[in-house]
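task queued by scheduler; priority normal; single chain, no ligands, no partner chains; default sampling; output format set to structure tokens
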Amino acid sequence: MEKGLELVTIGVQQISKAFEFIGGENSALKRQYDKERRGWDVYSDTLTAVEQALKNKNPFALELQQKAKAIVRECVVGKEQRA
């Protein structure tokens, strides 16, 4: 009985915290989502800009591409098969 009461008490506390996190118009969940969404938007915009710069043969973008390829090659499993 004591273990059951402890389990219910802990469960109520966790559910209460979850409702606090998701509750309200400006909930912590919404704020976290908005923050992460802005980060992904910046990431997407950056990739689009680099893609355009590569199409335009921008020297900085081309050098960045070569550096990125070299890093990825070092991370590939079975890299001795890659050239």
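post-processing summary
- The CA atoms of residues 24 and 30 lie 9 Å apart.
- The helical segments are 2-22, 28-55, 59-75.
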